Amino acid sequence: MIEFKIQKKSKKSKARVGLLKTPHGVVETPCLVPVATQAAIKTLDSGEVEKTKSQILICNTFHLRLKKVSSDLHEFMNWPRPLMTDSGGFQVFSLGFGLDSGVGKIFVRDRVSYNLPEIGSRQQPRQIKIVQEGVFFKSPVDGSKLFLGPKESIKIQEKLGADIIFAFDECTSPLASKEYVEKSLERTHKWAQTCLAVHKTNQALFGIVQGSHFKQLREESSKFINSLDFDGFGIGGDLGKNKETMKKILDWTIPNLNDSKPRHLLGIGYLEDMENIIKAGIDTFDCTVPTHYARRGIAFISFGKINLNQSKFLEDKNSLDRKCGCFVCQNYKRNYLSHLIRAKEITGMKLLTFHNLYFFNNFVEIIRNKIKNNKI
Predict the structure, then answer these.
(1) Residue numbers of the domain that contains 321
(2) Catalytic: 86?
């Protein structure tokens, strides 16, 4: 099980600093949770990930099932620190309506100009089938059929042995109509109850609030999930078409959740979002941005980000970021890093992944200190 203790609450916002105690160590919150989809941060080994100041990772239940991984993840990936596993609910979107429309779950482009129709209440995605008991998928690996529902998700997550697991849910599309989201929410709430009923281990189980960008449904879902015996909360689904809507969704949701339990925001973590979501009351959040961008040659630095694919950096003998204390910035120059990225050397991806993770974790550490010093 876990123990969550709030050490300090801001007097200027809903931000708070806390300690999340797990069987595999203590996490100081607020905290970024890097995404180790297939039990790995791509290009780094577990020891290197620890050196980036990463405190806790999240692995992907759906993809690990596809690869037939059923071992205890801590031993399997040689990661001694805390772990989360998601439920597979995001893949209901990403392999469903998300794949159909080509949009992400957050900040959708103008659907009129892109001629994207609203998703009706009885509509089904093309590649998967959603039923009351769960979801039928076609494996992206070999095309075989597989089924994932609340019982199956919990069983898989219990075998994987993460410290924190999530209830199975449906992450809805930003294009979904209110009528569709209402029906989806009814399913997600039933699945939440099933997850609690079949959960047998001492792993902490978080319930997930859905409801898309509809105020009534977000409030309904947050109150319902809060009424159940979950150890913490995830806030999922699409978060609107712009950052203002995301803020409103958090404002509709967080006041209805038990203040003594941790709150995790699923799939958000751009640098420009971090202080705002923390000020809204979020304790942990996961995001692929630092690692995803690094593998494409993008480095985040003190005054923005730079693209090392650009040839101008081949003549740049400055460190990546003079203000950064990571070993990459202390030992390598931009010209060498640019050469590696342009040559498509794995070492370049590795070095930028390390730097970006360190930079993001250090950024959140600075925010924690701001809260402690009454600055936000």
Answers:
(1) 307-360
(2) yes
